[in-house]
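User: structure tokens for this one?
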Amino acid sequence: MGTKINQIGIIEEALNNYNYYKKMIRAYNMLLQQNNTIKGIAYDSEKTKATNKFHSDVEARVLKKEELQTRVQKLQNTINNIDIALSTLDNDSSTILKKYYIEDESWVAISQDIHMSERQCMRIRDHAIDKMQSLLFAQIEDKKTGNIQLGLDIKLDAFQI
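Assistant:
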């Protein structure tokens, strides 16, 4: 049970941070474009340490570029996973999750927009999060029998940013 609660927390955090992730992707891509030019090494300007270990500014920039590219890829994977999971939900569920988590709307505003009570919107949200959890963490439980079947196995390492 604790694992399911943790998984739901991860999904809710990813939904809450959806717009932030998109902003970070744009910022990292801008940094990558700025640092796109790498010059050759002039060894006379490179410093050696007491151990004669060599450290290069070019090497540092390449490593930084690779780190930024890795971050962009993880963030993009997270965005893609969220989009895939949201696309599997019915229209009301998807709309409620987007409005509540991504657009940060209140339950009152959401209930007025889709013409349902706040409590009904909350129930739909809970059910939709459970569906996303089943999809993203590849566990589909048959409510009648309690059997667990495998679902889509979307890579969730992207959620661990």
